[in-house]
TrEMBL record:
Native source organism of the sequence: Nocardioides ganghwensis
Protein known as: UDP-glucose 6-dehydrogenase
Swiss-Prot/TrEMBL catalytic activity: UDP-alpha-D-glucose + 2 NAD(+) + H2O = UDP-alpha-D-glucuronate + 2 NADH + 3 H(+)
Lineage: Bacteria, Bacillati, Actinomycetota, Actinomycetes, Propionibacteriales
Binding locations of substrate: 128-131, 183, 228-232, 236, 292-293, 374
Family: Belongs to the UDP-glucose/GDP-mannose dehydrogenase family.
E.C. no: 1.1.1.22
Pfam family, one: UDPG_MGDP_dh_C
Length: 374
């Protein structure tokens, strides 16, 4: 968001992490995103970075809040404390600013926080971004949603449209709670599609069938399509696991069966994959990459970690190849950045996605990657 908006506006990026700020000031991206790296290095951006909240908020027309909202399994809700800490700072420093929440929040949060904090200077505008492609998806947005129909909402939407490279971007102005629901239902639908093709794949494995032939035939129906249909070890990453659980929590007083099934399907798939691997009686299992997906450096909630934990729970020795980690162990398992040694030591290599660097040992690679895509 900071890079996108600084193409045509003065933007100050605020972060609590001084090392991250130093990295950005040096023109380097602290996350793996090729477009962000390119823009920081090559584009003429009106963008500065600071750890000083006073400097960031003073004089701002809009304050975009994109802090973490991790799912709390104790409360069954997102932890929104970081958002509210920013809101309190902004209200104190610059009460005239409009706060735009980009963090994913529970359905009904904006109306609730307005009442609790005594301010109506906050609106919600959900993000729909992919790991490693965040700036690309802002430059070419499928849609822009703002949870308010007002002059300030239209002004903010116009900033996003102006920053984008795409023409004729659909812009939708809704009530705040409807915008929150759009975000959670969108991600839960994506999780459902992942779970569907994973369960199709589990069926095919159990019956000795060719998963790809079945998926190809199913996908030729134009109502279904051939996109987002590649089997995996389960949906992972920062968004889908927590967003599906949050939506399920919002259903506490509404009858449902499907949302629960989507959440449970992810655990079922990991159990199935782990048992399928154990049936091969491996002595040493290599885990090829902990990252959530190709082109990402995010390990958070990656599905392969669930497979790893299940194998270790059955006493299987596990060694991890993950050059991004920079550590020599991960939850009690050895981590190496020596690919050749890793290939030699493991008698079975678990890879969520097949890559060229494993081609020479493909006979001992276990993957459900049928299409070579995320």
């Amino acid at each position: 968001m900071a890079v996108l908006l600084s193409r045509h506006n003065t933007v100050v990026g605020l972060d609590l992490d001084a090392d991250r700020i130093d990295t950005l000031r040096a023109g380097r991206s602290p996350i793996h995103d090729d477009d962000i790296s390119r823009f920081l290095a090559e584009e003429d951006l009106d963008l500065t970075f600071t750890t000083d909240a006073e400097q960031a908020h003073a004089g701002a027309d809009f304050v975009v809040i994109a802090t973490p909202t991790n799912y709390d399994p104790v409360t069954n809700y997102f932890d929104t404390s970081s958002i509210e800490a920013v809101m309190r700072d902004v209200t104190r420093i610059n009460p005239d600013a409009t706060m735009v929440v980009k963090s994913t929040v529970p359905v009904g949060y904006i109306e609730d926080v307005r009442e609790r904090l005594g301010t109506d200077a906050v609106i919600f505008s959900p993000e729909f971004l992919r790991e490693g492609r965040a700036l690309h998806d802002n430059l070419h947005p499928a849609r822009i949603v703002v949870g308010e129909d007002s002059d300030r909402a239209r002004a903010f939407a116009e900033l996003l449209v102006k920053g984008a490279d795409a023409d004729d971007v659909p812009v939708l102005f809704t009530e705040p709670t409807e915008a929150e629901a759009i975000k959670l239902f969108s991600n839960t639908y994506l999780a459902m599609r992942v779970a569907y093709f994973n369960e199709l794949d589990s069926f095919a494995i159990s019956r000795g069938l060719d998963s790809r032939q079945i998926i190809d035939g199913v996908g030729l129906d134009p109502r279904i399509g051939t996109h987002y249909n590649n089997p995996s070890f389960g949906y992972g990453g920062y968004c889908l696991p927590k967003d599906t659980k949050q939506l399920l929590a919002n259903y506490s007083d509404v009858p449902q069966t499907l949302i629960s099934a989507i959440v449970e399907a992810n655990t079922t798939r990991k159990d199935f994959i782990a048992f399928d691997i154990l049936d091969r009686a491996p002595q040493v299992v290599g885990i090829h990459r902990l990252i959530m997906k190709t082109g990402s450096d995010n390990f958070r909630e990656s599905s392969v970690q669930g497979i790893m934990k299940r194998l270790k729970g059955k006493g299987v020795e596990v060694v991890v190849y993950e050059p991004e980690l920079g550590e020599d162990s991960w939850f009690g398992s050895e981590v190496t950045s020596d690919l050749a040694s890793f290939k030699e030591r493991a008698d079975l290599i678990v890879a969520n996605r097949m890559v060229e660097e494993l081609a020479d040992v493909k006979d001992k690679v276990y993957t459900r990657d049928l299409f070579g895509a995320d």
